[in-house]
Sequence to fold (275 residues):
Amino acid sequence: SKAGGRGTWRFFEPAMDASVQSRRALELDLREAMAKDEFTLFYQPIYDLRMDRISGFEALLRWPHPKRGLVPPDQFIPIAEDIGLITPLGEWVLNRACEQAAGWPSELKIAVNVSATQIRDPRFIEVVASALDASRIAPQRLELEITESVLLGNSAETIATLHKLKAQGLSIALDDFGTGYSSLSYLRSFPFDKLKIDQSFVRDATATNGSKLIVRAITSLGKGLGITTTAEGVETIEQLNQIEAEGCNEVQGFLFSRPVPATEIASTILNLRGG
Ligand code: C2E
Ligand code: CA
Ligand code: CA
Ligand code: CA
Fold:
């Protein structure tokens, strides 16, 4: 509301005031959580339909907040980005995920989400190399998941970074595929190893023709490029059947398993054996 004189803006809206305060509180809590090492990783299996087995797990960040409970990443990662915490936090995720994957059967891959800010950090390649070194896992077991937002802006530099990472032996997946802008042009500028079909299309693939056609188009695009396609957010048998009929290579979703703590990895592997 324009309460003061010309050009003077004051905001009295209590709702905004409350949200600014809770945001400040979250920022402080985040810094404290980082200092106290309060984060944890959950893991969700990725199921390979051709091999009929789990091909790996995706690491998903969780923040067990003393008062708010388990805070989902969508609620704090954007804040961590804003206040410059995402680089150290992302480094922690990489190290932790590789360290835990070192204890799994060696055919299982570990997928780690990487934010745009993280990739632009000049130390990023070194950070990845050191996580691999410390955990002694083969680089071939590590997959980095990036979204198209990573490729916006200074893309020449980012593409150079991605090439250097691939040269080290790890693989790169394009996450949330289909939701960003000019998705297709990115496929010319970098040889991705995998396209992850966004769950919004997967969820609607049994209901609306448009989503079904998008899943079909992405799958055939992946086939044409000779790369893996993974359908995210598969929740029902109907969706699984539809996705399998379209020829998707891999699936991930609550139908197979929710993200689980590291202690439940072994039982999750057993549950999904020969599924
Ligand atoms: P994402 O990378 O697309 O991860 C998939 C999200 O879908 C996860 O949410 C997962 O729990 C959820 N999901 C999986 N299967 C299903 C399903 O069948 N149905 C439904 N409704 N949801 C399903 P989550 O763990 O809350 O993560 C949200 C986002 O936060 C991730 O989306 C990713 O963009 C980001 N994120 C998570 N961990 C990290 C991290 O370590 N670093 C960074 N930079 N981002 C992360
Ligand atoms: Ca992901
Ligand atoms: Ca995704
Ligand atoms: Ca099967």
About this structure: Residues 44, 59-61, 72-74, 77, 90, 93, 113-115, 145, 175-176, 232-235, 252-254, 259 surround C2E (ligand 1) (CB under 6 Å).
